[in-house]
Design brief:
Layout: E1 6-10, H1 15-31, E2 36-41, E3 55-59, H2 68-80, E4 86-89, H3 94-102, E5 109-112, H4 117-124, H5 137-147, E6 177-182, H6 194-204, E7 210-214, H7 221-228, E8 234-236, H8 243-251, E9 255-259, H9 262-269, E10 274-277, E11 297-298, H10 321-324, H11 328-344
Parallel strand pairs: 1-2, 1-4, 2-3, 4-5, 6-7, 6-9, 7-8, 9-10, 10-11
Helix pairs in contact: 1-5, 1-9, 2-3, 6-11
Length: 345
């Protein structure tokens, strides 16, 4: 099999999973200077790939012109113009399967991600869990490229990404530190109880040299604005800026606090340490942040954990003990330890 010179990459969602492809793509292009990549995804995630040399971003509009079978066929015609010679399907869903079928007779070399569904089911089943660390999602992505003849060394170094300076971006002065807190996740089973997170914030604002930024979507803005109203040290940016500017803000945090959510992965792209809180999901499933320190994981050991890979299963106990049993002081202490480590290093 000839080494490819131009790879078409599919990964349409979700935000955290797309973010996890970024370091793998960067290392791939760094280790193969002859290679070009056309990355196909939604327009929203395009800022994640800004400035990556030899990468072209092609937008899919799944709710617009690329909706349905006819829309995907139209997308196929658009993609042919890139003259790629291999396909890396990092998503393996119905849309990408249909797209791959369109190119089946064209002789393009194709490789597809193995999501490890069997071992993930063993990890999360109610009875007889098999608790072992599974391959990281980064490894699974890298294996796709290895199948195409371009194995990626995940231990390679990539420069920490920095976003352009912006007037809305935090700038620490003197001993001031900036902490980002992303208190919500898509599912309740991955979300630390808001009242407990408010207790964490109440402990943090006692540190007068801390500036706290609250991250969330437009749907979280009213809640987070009310949290921010209690102290001038707290600033809510929920739904207040474009994604590219939000990335710029995240890149300049001294520390991020998040759930097992996209914000953990976004901060990881910029080398920002993350204190992550885990509920029904577990780092063993392979979704921990790129180069994050396992010591910054906050979780409790329960016989029922993990009960879900993505957090989309209802708590069968009905009490979300995995989250409610985490003391806010524990979260605060982990944050304080990381900040102290930065100050003394």
């Amino acid at each position: 099999m000839a080494t490819p010179t131009h790879i078409l990459v599919f990964r349409f969602s979700a935000l955290g999973d797309v973010a996890m492809t970024v370091p793998v793509i960067k290392l791939l292009l760094q280790q193969y200077p002859h290679l070009q990549v056309t990355y196909v995804s939604t327009a929203f995630v395009a800022p994640l790939f800004a400035g990556i040399e030899r990468l072209h971003f092609h937008v899919i509009e799944p709710k617009g012109k690329h909706k349905g079978f006819r829309g995907l066929y139209a997308l196929k015609k658009e993609l042919r113009q890139h003259h790629f010679d291999a396909i890396a399907d990092l998503h393996n869903v119905l849309r990408t399967q249909i797209l791959r079928s369109f190119f089946l007779l064209s002789g393009k070399t194709t490789a597809v991600i193995d999501k490890g569904r069997k071992e993930k089911a063993e990890l999360t089943r109610v009875n007889g869990k098999v608790l072992r660390p599974l391959k990281s999602t980064f490894q699974r992505y890298a294996e796709v490229f290895a199948e195409l003849g371009v194995p990626v060394n995940l231990h390679g170094d990539i420069p920490k990404q920095k976003m352009p300076e912006d007037g809305n971006v935090a700038k620490s002065s003197g001993n001031e530190r900036s902490i980002g807190i992303a208190p919500f996740a898509k599912h309740a089973e991955k979300t630390y109880p808001p009242e407990k997170m408010q207790e964490v914030i109440a402990l943090l604002v006692k540190e007068k040299e801390l500036k706290i930024y609250l991250f969330g979507g437009k749907e979280d803005a009213a809640t987070l604005n009310s949290w921010a109203a209690v102290s001038p040290q707290i600033i809510s940016v929920a739904g207040a800026m474009p994604f590219s500017e939000e990335l710029g803000l995240i890149s300049r945090m001294d520390l991020m606090v998040s759930m097992d959510s996209a914000n953990m992965h976004l901060a990881s792209l910029f080398g920002v340490p993350v204190v992550s809180i885990w509920g029904s999901t577990h780092p063993l499933a392979g979704f921990y942040g790129w180069h994050q320190d396992p010591k910054n994981i906050v979780q409790v050991d329960l016989y029922c954990r993990p009960c879900s890979v993505f957090g989309n299963r209802k708590c069968y106990r009905g009490d979300l003990a995995c989250l409610h049993s985490i003391n806010p002081v524990t979260v605060y202490d982990r944050i304080a330890q990381q900040l102290y480590k930065q100050q003394t290093s």
